[in-house]
Amino acid sequence: MNTFNRFFQSNTFKRILIFLAMALVLYLLKDMINLILFTFIFSFLMDRLVNSILRKISINRTLLVIILYTFIVGMLSFVFIKYLPLVVNEIRLLIKQLTDFYSNVPDDYGWLNYFLQKVEATKVSGYMEQGFTFLIKYFSDVSRVGLQILLALLLSLFYMLEKPRIIRFTEKFKYSKMAPVYNEIAFFAGKFAGTFGKVIEAQIIIALVNCILTTIALWILGFPQLVGLSIMILILGIIPVAGVIISLIPLCIIAFSIGGIIKVAYIVIAIMIVHAVETYILNPNLMSSKTNLPVFYTFIVLIFSEHIFGIWGLIVGIPIFVFFLDVLDVSSPRKPKEL
To answer: Cβ contacts of residue 132 below 8 Å, gap of 6+?
Structure first.
């Protein structure tokens, strides 16, 4: 009995209660999850960018923030006005091409029919369907996405402009009657920013590099709808490990439809080279040791996170899992035991 009393009075129990309360609040705000994630990602990335620039050149921080946000808003406005209709049209053509090929596979290609049946029987086809639906929904519903991005940029701008003042104001809770709650929230916030934010940043950088390299390979191989394919590769590239596999399936289908089995071999080789660059160059330099998960764990986390969070789970599942590892202080053993 004394053991239970000590546990209920311990800091660990208080930390668990506060964490559950925070999780409940986020669940109640699930309709705003896009805005919350966009705001956090923009704020984190912009803060990293501003601090990096300030270390190299001497410039007023407020002026630098205004210049960067003006540039970003201008670029986004230009892209939305000039290229969004082209992107939406190319994605629709891409989906139509994949659908037509999938529905009209010649009977002569029995092995291909068998492969497509196996794909249909797995989760991969579900991920593809959700991914394409996600792209069409988000790129077609310009007003909703544009409003979310605009609000997220606005909130992150206010945060960046008033960051020192926000920190000073927030620290007042440390010396108030809310101090125990503040200390635990500060603990989780620090862990979250140090793991989730950095992993998302690394995933975005890796996705951009993979997108550029893959798009160059597709251009050399003469693929159609390069803009639509690039967007697809970029979005799927944010999904660790599984994104490469998921994107390979539509790329192989398009390759087969335009050049037969030889073109499929070329695209598989190209993707293998890009994946090797990610595995042996990008991951070791951008990801910490805690994010170096076995492939089995990666897929298990992605499957469960997709089931819980939907399509967002494929993107944030690994960062959230790494956040839990950091909170629980799970680290790699110094010397792995041989089995």
So the answer is: 91, 95, 232
The pLDDT score that the predictor gives to residue 325 is 81
Q: What is the pTM of this model?
A: 0.68
Alpha-carbon distance values, 150 to 64, 155, 257, 301 (Å):
19, 9, 40, 31
- Can you say how many angstroms the Cα of residue 254 is from the centroid of all Cα atoms in its chain? 25
Question: 27-36, 78-87, 174-183, 227-236: which range is least confident on average?
Answer: 78-87
Q: Kindly state the tokens that stand for 141.
A: 């519903």
Q: Determine the Cα–Cα distance for residues 251 and 14; give it in Å rounded to an integer.
A: 50
d(CA 230, CA 211): 6
Q: How much is the pLDDT for 145?
A: 66
Distance CA 119, CA 127 (A): 11
Cβ–Cβ under 8 Å, residues 65 and 160: yes
Most confident region among 159-173, 177-191, 309-323 by mean pLDDT: 159-173
State the DSSP string of 221-288.
TT-S-HHHHHHHHHHHHTSTTHHHHHHHHHHHHHHHHHHHHHHHHHHHHHHHHHHHHIIIIIHHHHS-
C-alpha dist (Å) from residue 16 to 9, 38, 309: 12, 27, 22
Q: Render 99-133 in DSSP notation, one character per residue.
A: HHHHHT--TT-HHHHHHHHHHHTSHHHHHHHHHHH
Q: CB of 296 within 8 A of CB of 17?
A: no
Determine the pLDDT at residue 67. 92
* Tokens of residue 258, six digits: 């335009």
Give the highest mean pLDDT range of 126-135, 157-166, 199-208, 329-338: 157-166
- Structural Rg of the chain based on CA atoms: 23
Query: What is 39-60 written as a DSSP string?
Result: HHHHHHHHHHHHHHHHHHS---
Range in 216-230, 265-279, 307-321, 324-338 the model is least confident about: 324-338
